[in-house]
Structures are given as structure tokens and as C-alpha cells.
UniProtKB/TrEMBL annotation:
The keyword Heme appears for this protein: yes
Protein name: Cyp4M9
Main localisation: endoplasmic reticulum
Gene Ontology MF annotations: heme binding; iron ion binding; monooxygenase activity; oxidoreductase activity, acting on paired donors, with incorporation or reduction of molecular oxygen
Keywords: Heme, Iron, Metal-binding, Monooxygenase, Oxidoreductase
Organism: Bombyx mandarina
Amino acid sequence: MWMYFILILLLLLTIHFLLNYNYRARLLRRIPGPRGYFIVGNALDVILSPAELFALTRKNATQWPNLNRFWSFGIGALNIYGPDEIEAIISSTQHITKSPVYNFLSDWLRDGLLLSTGTKWQKRRKILTPAFHFNTLKQFCVILEENSQRFTENLKDTEGKSINVVPAISEYTLHSICETAMRTQLGSETSEAGRSYKNAICELGNQFVHRLARIPPHNNFIYNLFTLGKQNEHLNIVHSFTKRVIKDRRQYIRRNGGNNFDDEKDTQADEHSIYFNKKKTAMLDLLLKAERDGLIDEIGVQEEIDTFMFEGHDTTATGLTYCIMLIANHKSIQDKIIEELDEIFGESTRAADIEDLSKMRYLERCIKESLRLYPPVPSMGRILSEEINLNGYTVPAGTYCHIQIFDLHRREDLFKDPLVFDPDRFLPHNTEGRHPYAYIPFSAGPRNCIGQKFAILEMKSLLSAVLRRYNLYPITKPEDLKFVLDLVLRTTEPVHVRFVKRNKV
Ligand code: HEM
């Protein structure tokens, strides 16, 4: 009996020693962080609800300066919120591989721009960069304005009442990215496929959140068993839709002589096709041209369209939600935005064009300040490809580095009175001397957000369309918000605002 006990004890001690005293573990344990336990290290610390996990990450960021460490079963992870430490990682072309947290998305987005790495990522980035050049954005602006006008039309039905802005805004951004990336209208009377696609995207998003917060369904195979293949069902809908859109477009180009990527004759496209073109399509055509030139294959085209549909809608919807909530809660700031809009448009009700949007300097500062306080992507992850030195500590290769944008943006030493919503922080003279990595809502360095100009344009388009017609009144207050751990910054409760028609319109 005693013999067994001693043997088991020896076995446990050996496991503990092997897991927690190897070269990597010794290096990582020098970095400050929560105390680890016998064998399991910090594993028990994270068995929490998504809201508790979010709160714990914030608490740890106030306890240890610049970075803290998590260690468990051979996995080393750092939470990093010091601007120098962040710069060392994201400005480098070495550490461009994403952390394994992103693997939940791999069945859907595969090797699209967000998840790919190495030369594949470099090639794709080169192909897609022109999709966000000024002339392309100018075309997108027309589509965004049409959608923004539709959004304000729909507000009529709920005028004066408290509404949860999250679903309405998500619908707006999903339609906008779909119409700009694929020139495909979702949910129109003729497009049953479009409606199913939209629902499947929402379901995949929900499932992602579900998996992120729970340990057992992390493995794709096990998760599918648990959910009786529900995820695969949604993936099939999404992939068949994007496949069909691409096929239709390819056929259209072939019918028109094989070289009509940017041809304005698109107006004659078959209206019964799910690829319903009125104007040229920059992003998809760009990819098909690259395919013709042998730079990307058929699967690659689809991976990118799937990636842009995902990255391009939830992020901007989140940014818009908090910005609307903040503007509703700050009457004097709202009045200043309206003054700027009145100066640009006077009594006119015409749609804004790209020049109008570029004149909205104060609105842009409000958006930037809102993205500081509520960064839609609150954290992002890399895996170190080689050993580096951070804050005087040697960090071994293979460590997951989670850049905590949320904590960085709320550092008192970088932003005085960090919880105050003050758009003037972004006046040129107030940004002088600020650390270049103090403000990174769109990340920075080689893997920064490719869609950031599009995002700002979209946010300006919707906010200006709304504020030209409505005054916003607060229901949800900043202090009511309780966040959860997720890919984008979500709250436990809906975000409510009241829209009341302005007298002049
Ligand atoms: C307010 C809105 C947005 C915010 C805050 C945002 C933020 C970010 C951040 C922080 C990253 C880096 C992620 C990481 O390294 O893991 C990123 C990457 C990316 N974003 Fe955005 N994004 C926004 C809108 C958009 C839009 C509208 C698009 C597409 C039209 C887009 C497409 C992408 C893509 C494809 C990447 C991956 C880039 C690469 O790795 O080369 N994003 N975004």
C-alpha cells in the first residue's frame, strides 16, 4: 500500500518536474504573473465564465506592469500591454504567425489573409492591398451611403423608443461588406440563398464565442460530435454561397470575352444570378484577375472572400455600437458633430460623397476616441517564432503573445484621465510625442488591418446619415457595460439608445 503511494507520489513529482522545470518553463516562470499550482500551473485560474475571464485579464493588467505570464501543461502565454513590448512583436516581420486561439476559425476561413502565414500571407496581402485604394473606396462609398440611408429609413418604425442597436447595426455592416466585396445583395426578395447565408454567418459567429469560452469543444472533431455536426451544416451553407457567387462572376467574365473584370458593361449582368451586379466589383475581380495570372487558385479566391465577409462586418458593427452609445451619452459632443454636418450639408438632404466624408474631421476624432475606449478587437495573438527579450526577460520561441489592446488604450501614463471620452486627444498637437504603439485599434506593423480605411469610411457614412436626421438619447450608459471575452468586444447585455427625429428634416 505504502509502496503504491510512494510510487504515485514519485510519478506526480516527475510529471511536475518535467512540465514545470524544463528550459521554457524556467524562463517563463521568471516573468511576473499569477502563482502556479502543482502540475497544472495556472490552468485552474481560467476555468471561469467569459465575463469573469474578461475581468481577470483587466485585473492582472493593473497588477503587473507591461506584461504578465500564464503557464500550464507546456503552454506559455503572455498578456502584453506595454507599448515597447507590443512594438517589439508586431513591428517585426518575424512574429507574424497567429496564436492557436484562431484555430477555431480555420474550418471556415482556412488560409485566408487573417489566418495564413509566411509567403502565402505575403503574396495574398500584395494581391489584396489595391482593393482598398482611394478610387476603389470612392466606389464603395456609393454603396455604403445607400445602405446608411436605408438604415435611417428603418429607424422611422422605432422613432422615440429605446432600441437595442446591436442587431440593426450588424445587419447594416453585413450587407455593406457583402455588397462591396461580392456585389451581392443579401436577403432581397429574390435571394433565398442570401438570407440563409446571412443566418449561417451569424450562427458561426455564435458558435465561435461558445467554443472560445469553454475548454472541451476546442478540438474541431470533438466539437462537431458535441453539436451533432451543426457547425458543418452552417459551414456548408456559407461555402456553397461564396462558391456560387464566384462561379457566376467567372461565367459572366467568360461570356464577355474573358477580360471584362473592370468593365462598366456590368450593368447588363443577369439579374437572376445571385451575383447581382450593377457596377464593377473591385475585390472579387481583383482576385479573379490574380487567379488568371496564376497568383492564386480557386480555393484561395474563396478563402479570401470568406475572410473579408467575416473580418469586414463584426468589427465595424462593434465599433459603431459603442460610438453611437458614447455620442448619445455626451450631448455637447453630439452638438459639435451636428454643427460640423450642418456646415457641410446646410439644408440639403443629398447623400454624402467621399469628399464630404473627408471633411468630417470632428466626427473622425470621435470615432478614433471611441475606438480607443472600446477597441472592437480588444486583443490579438501571435506565436513567437524565435526567442526575444521583452522588458528585460528572455521569452522562449513558441510562446503565445496576447496583445491586450483594451488595457494598452486605458493606460493612465499614455492617456490622461483614460476613462474620459475626449475626442480632442486626437487633435494633431495633442498626438505629438505619443508613443507610436500607444494607440493601435487596427493593429500596426506588417499585419495591420487591411480594411481600416474602409472601416472609418463606413463608420462615418452611417454616423453622419443618422445624425443628420436624428438626435441620440442615452439609455445604456458607459458604466452599465459588462464585457465578455470574445473575438470582438461584446457585452453581456444589449446596448440601448433612443433615436428622436431632428426638427429640421
Ligand atoms: C472598426 C473596424 C475594424 C477594426 C477595429 C479592425 C481591427 C483589426 C485588427 C486589430 C487586426 C489585426 C488582427 C490580428 O493580428 O489578429 C485586423 C486584421 C484584419 N482586418 Fe480588420 N478591423 C476592422 C475592420 C475591417 C474591415 C472593414 C475589413 C475588411 C473589409 C477588415 C479586414 C481585415 C483583415 C483581412 C485582416 C487580416 C490582415 C492580415 O493579417 O494581413 N477589417 N483588423
